[in-house]
Specification:
Bound molecules: phosphoric acid mono(formamide)ester
Helix content: 25-40%
Distance between the termini: 17 Å
Number of helices: 11
Largest sheet: 5 strands, parallel
Number of strands: 9
Strand content: 5-15%
């Protein structure tokens, strides 16, 4: 469903079924959109005359801003729908909202929604020339975040095969953890470790092959990449069994003391937004091993690469 009849990317809904060659191509394309800090950002006119709509039915800073910038830097007209003042507040269905925008000749719809299955549902209902890009789907998928995380790891570590990657935090409710795990599996990561308190551990079948533990020292031992995740309180109905903030930081927070268990040249990642002093200590978030701001920079480049790719499919029509 994500690829057209010629194997080209038409929608981006999940990294789960995308093959290695396509993932590598997107990462390579994204590298081409990076410029040095202080230089003008890359610009191309590949989407001139096209319209990209950002439809964020959940809050966002990084993803929404970077899709906005990415589309503008590719020459597109950009519509940022204000969900709080849209007619969805008057009971309009999401599909009627989509059909309305489609009638205004929107070509790409970037969608974030709290319900699982929404991006794929919409992709099944739009006209052939419209692309749907998943910008965060419940606890299921956040494919462009996965891609920017993969790009950041590759920039620092050169590849994936010999790496130990450790993700710490609320794995169960994290679409970020799901997407990077799918990408890492496709790219042949050496070892993936998922560390969380038991109530926040993943469903056993959701990340096959990963080591799942509630022992932070065991999870961090010799790790090359350490990613901290925030607790997704908005997705947790019952907080029973979730440690207090102090207990959580003591047992699962990425502090300087805990980071010393990882490899000396380990990089520290966080998809944002961060809760400093809960899942990560400020000294680590702002420290020499942190690549968190680089993740943000890579986010614009990755989203340009994805928009460029779906734009090429439109150009073929
Ligand atoms: N990482 C991420 O999705 O951040 P935002 O919620 O700010 O978009």
């Amino acid at each position: 469903m994500q690829l057209d009849g010629n194997g080209n990317l038409r929608h981006l809904l999940t990294l789960k079924n995308l093959d290695r060659a396509l993932l590598i191509d997107i990462l390579d394309d994204a590298e081409g959109y990076l410029t040095h800090a202080g230089h003008r950002p890359a610009r191309r006119d590949l989407l001139a005359g096209r319209t990209v709509a950002n439809l964020f039915f959940e809050p966002s800073t990084r993803t929404r801003a970077s899709f906005d910038l990415a589309a503008k830097r590719l020459g597109a007209d950009v519509l940022n729908l204000d969900v709080n003042t849209s007619s969805r507040k008057k009971g309009e269905s999401i599909l009627d909202t989509i059909y309305t925008l489609q009638a205004m000749q929107v070509d790409v719809m970037v969608i974030r929604d709290a319900s699982a299955g929404v991006p794929a549902f919409i992709a099944r209902h739009v006209q052939d020339h419209v692309s749907i890009l998943n910008a965060g789907e419940s606890d299921v998928s956040h494919p462009t975040q996965g891609l920017l995380d993969l790009l950041t790891i590759r920039q620092h570590k050169g590849g994936f095969e010999d790496l130990i990657v450790t993700i710490v935090g609320d794995i169960r409710h994290s679409r970020v953890a799901m997407s990077i795990s799918h990408g890492l599996a496709t790219l042949g990561v050496g070892e993936l470790r998922l560390v969380s308190p038991p109530p926040l551990a993943p469903e056993p079948e959701s990340v096959p092959g990963a080591m799942v533990t509630d022992d932070l020292q065991r999870g961090l031992d010799g790790a090359d990449v350490v990613m901290a995740l925030r607790i997704q309180r908005e997705r947790i109905g019952n907080l029973d069994g979730i440690p207090s903030i102090d207990e959580y930081f003591a047992s699962f927070g990425i502090s300087q003391e805990h980071l010393a268990w990882a490899a000396p040249d380990a990089i520290v990642m966080h998809p944002g937004p961060m809760n400093r002093g809960i899942e990560i200590e400020s000294a680590v978030a702002d420290g020499p091993q942190s690549v968190i701001e680089q993740q943000v920079t890579n986010g614009v480049a990755v989203r340009m690469a994805v928009l460029d790719r779906v734009g090429r499919v439109m150009a073929d029509q």
